[in-house]
Specification:
Layout: H1 3-54, H2 84-93
């Protein structure tokens, strides 16, 4: 093995070691950030619950009165729609194909 080969092998080994250390430190950073977020969420939830407990109870809203049912009517009141056979004939004469 030449000196150049040993240097390459050492560099490769150092690169692998450095990558492993970066992965461990990255995981540690992610874990710390995740714990900080969860702690903040728990703190905010405790504050919200304390605020809601201290506030006077709010009256319950009354249910809305039922609206009268509307009958369905066409926009052209008084006109009767054409029969299906007539409508199909008008579609065919207009160039529409089924």
């Amino acid at each position: 093995m030449t000196r150049e080969d040993r240097d390459r092998a050492a560099a490769r080994s150092n690169k692998i070691t450095r990558a492993a250390q970066d992965a461990r430190s990255g995981k540690t950073d992610r874990d710390a950030a995740s714990k900080a977020v969860l702690d903040n969420m728990a703190r905010l939830k405790a504050l919200r619950l304390a605020r809601e407990a201290a506030a006077p109870p709010q009256p319950q809203p009354q249910p809305a009165a039922a609206k009268p049912a509307r009958s369905k009517s066409s926009s052209k009141s008084g006109e009767k729609s054409p029969a299906l056979a007539q409508w199909l004939a008008s579609q065919q004469s207009g160039g529409r194909q089924t």
